[in-house]
């Protein structure tokens, strides 16, 4: 009996005989600590933009907008100089649906996608494969992706056989044990979940229910409590029969993204874009702290999507929990301030101080970056004040995301005409913004696509729900996920540019690699094997 057959014999699909998964392969020796602030390629860039360049001295505002813009350092320039810090290694657990509906072509495509993932992991990365159907099993322990580790993982993936029901919750519980019981830890941890069906073993309400019911599928150790950090679960709904609402909630509850793989043939591309990000994490546990400078300025609210924010009771301080960022990844948050009238002698008003603190993922060093104080001019007459394009663009994006959620809620209640109207009105506003920015143009196209997919119960049940939820996931996280907006004349799925607009160079590079582009055609990126 060959090694792969012995492996299958040791692990039945109903239950894994190992009680505690503490047999993970040891990680490489810890790198020498690097002084705080020595990131792989510089530090995060923090900028602010005021809604208007000036506010009249005798005027006040209860909703003056300030944009906080954070951009993570890249990994390219230092690499080109030959002195790049090694990237942060990854512990990855893939949780794969092998129920009966995955048989045949679907399973073959999944295996192909997994071989791509394995091939692109480096020797410091570790991978554990978990499969589930009626039950779940750990197919491989958390093993380093050396040549031997890759061969073992490929053999294990190739041995997967489809059959049985769909027990997503048990698959995630097994993944939680892999991460919770490990003796060693790499700097970055993540879970990838793929399913083409609906969990038939866990009691949760379905369509039209409160989304929180689906959190019963998520093991407690994955749920973020307060300001604690957990490994994100990036979910992939495969085909048109998966439970999009469940997959969206699982991702949302853990800080992951939900991707909709409508065309089954692009599963490898979807995985590629995801791991392109995971292999380029440059900062972790990032938090933004905002403090008011002028004694009369107050923070009224923060628009931060799915990122938890808090405004202190007195309005003098606010915080946003950002978490991990990939190389070159950006986040934008809108603050709304109360700005008082100025004294006759005041030529300007210092509004807020913004500080971004985080841990460098590769070195473990703590870093703190302070932006220049945000100041607004206070002339006697502000009629000629310049309006910020950056602030307006973010306002357009945030309001569109809110209307997408409203249209989805209407469609869930069967109010398809109302859903279409919400999206039509928002599409008109986006078009009237007169902004030729690629992100805004793509947003208009996205709203048009959504309008079509919510137009009837049949369209919404078929693909609209999953498409809408994937869009909500991308905009709430400001992170690229995978969707396709249409099929071209050759039957190929076109990537949704609205979603792709969040993609980093590393994610785009891995996506191109998946599509078979030559190394010479790939843009420089931070994706490198360690």
Notes on the structure:
- The chain has 530 residues and is of the alpha+beta class.
- The chain is 32% helix and 24% strand.
- It has 13 helices and 19 strands.
- The chain has helices at residues 3-10, 76-80, 105-120, 147-158, 168-181, 244-254, 267-278, 389-412, 416-432, 438-453, 457-477, 497-500, 505-514, and strands at 45-50, 61-71, 90-97, 126-132, 136-138, 143-144, 188-195, 233-238, 258-261, 281-292, 298-303, 309-311, 317-326, 330-339, 348-360, 366-370, 374-377, 484-487, 493-495.
- The strands form four sheets. Strands 3, 4, 5, 6, 7, 8 and 9 form a seven-stranded mixed β-sheet that branches.
- Helix 7 runs antiparallel to helix 13 (505-514) and helix 9 runs antiparallel to helix 10 (438-453).
- The longest helix is centred in the last third of the chain and has 24 residues, at 389-412.
- The chain is globular and about 75 Å long.
- It starts with a helix and ends in a 16-residue tail after the last helix.
